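Severity: low
Component: inverse-folding endpoint
Summary: output formatting inconsistent between runs
Steps to reproduce: submit the following structure tokens with default settings.
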């Protein structure tokens, strides 16, 4: 099972994405109010998710991605130009599909903790 941390950085909006990821079999941790980037980084270190999703306000995305080197960080919302995220989505269905296919395959081939065949 893939573990995904979703950080709510705005007026909600991650509920549907969280539901779709759970329906697809992911373990989802939702931070209701993500707070500043250092708070979010601590949460990621504690929860150790395979992927980190942030949204809908992506204004701090570059700072977050820089603070989490080696982590897959994706956005859900409207991204400012030059956002340093792995991917950005505006549709929860597309985001959930990506997480459960492309990202899982990438993690299984690079992360020894995945316990998946290589």
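Observed output (run 2 of 3):
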């Amino acid at each position: 099972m893939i573990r995904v941390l979703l950080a709510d950085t705005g007026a909600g909006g991650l509920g549907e994405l969280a539901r779709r990821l759970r329906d697809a079999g992911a373990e989802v941790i939702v931070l209701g109010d993500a707070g500043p980037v250092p708070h979010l980084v601590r949460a990621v270190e504690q929860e150790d998710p395979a992927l980190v999703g942030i949204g809908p306000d992506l204004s701090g995305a570059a700072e977050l991605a820089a603070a989490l080197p080696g982590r897959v960080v994706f956005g859900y919302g409207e991204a400012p130009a030059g956002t340093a995220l792995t991917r950005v989505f505006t549709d929860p269905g597309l985001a959930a599909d990506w997480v459960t296919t492309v990202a899982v395959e990438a993690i299984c081939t690079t992360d020894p903790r995945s316990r998946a065949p290589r």
